[in-house]
């Protein structure tokens, strides 16, 4: 639909057909803006399935590049709610998207927008899920894809996806922040279209998580949404989705946005807990949760605004807490997620125990990626299979 592009810091507006990722005046992040007074959206007018059910609130005008992403399940988790100590708990499992992560929501819009702008090659830096998703949608669109990954820091399942979909994969001797810096320079030089979350169009697809949550709860708003924070685009995108529904008069409030980071990769949380609006980057981030192992998240200003504006908060969890939550989620509720996803569950438990989240709240935890994204981690943290001879007596002895 018709839209403008605007700097969130200085308010400068840009031609929507210009390829630009940050403000050329102040360096601020950009946002896609609509004239909500012209939108005629009602609950009855929403049609279709998944991300493009909300086409009227998305910035594309051509036939979308889609693989039926979105429409992911929202599970009510009563056993887990009782264990953690909250009134109601739901898990929005984004690992059920086509490539196995929430990134597909952003890429269906981002790659469609790339075609609208005439791009022939798309590119990204990635901790894994972004590259897997971008390579899939680039393949579907019939354009080239280049991805930069931090060497030795990406789960095997995610690298395999990018390779199988035909992306040009480059392993950078450095961390994610190094890879992002390089890919930004590369896109500027080679005229590739950058689809990291610094690109505001990618976040437009991700905001549909909020739309779905509201609908799946029967148009009842959760008190709080808890999710892992890496490059910090998703929390700000989901906040924007809730804000837009309120702006359109479809809802009357916004849930408290609550971001969870790993202890040694927590620049956003550190800033929030200190009441700051700017982060201090973590130079050497570390965590078992590779998807959120990011020390200098590009969307930190948007994420911090989302948390403050919604009355939310942030927290950190250890790797041990992440693994424990990952196991509990799948063994109590049957929901299988990668480590970064489990950070939302671990964080909820911790913040409830600290009295930072009320026990009477209706909470939605967003789990961002599927368990099979990181099979190596499973082998490290679970008991190994027990070998047994091929006869029933041997099996009986071991079982007993």
Overview of this structure, please?
It is built from 14 helices and 13 strands. It has 400 residues and is an alpha/beta fold. It has two domains: 74-100 and 202-381, Rossmann fold (3-Layer(aba) Sandwich), CATH 3.40.50; 102-198, Rossmann fold. Strands 4-5-13-10-11-12 form a six-stranded mixed β-sheet, sandwiched between helices. Strand 1 and strand 2 (13-14) form a beta hairpin. Helix 2 (103-116) packs across helix 6 and helix 6 packs across helix 8. The longest helix is centred in the middle third of the chain and has 15 residues, at 176-190. It starts with a strand and ends with a helix.
Low-confidence stretches: none
Whole-Å distance between the termini?
Answer: 65 Å
Q: What fraction, in percent, of the residue positions are helical?
A: 25-40%
Q: Report the portion of residues in β strands.
A: 15-25%
Task: Give the strand order, joined by hyphens, for the main sheet.
Answer: 4-5-13-10-11-12
How many helices?
Answer: 14
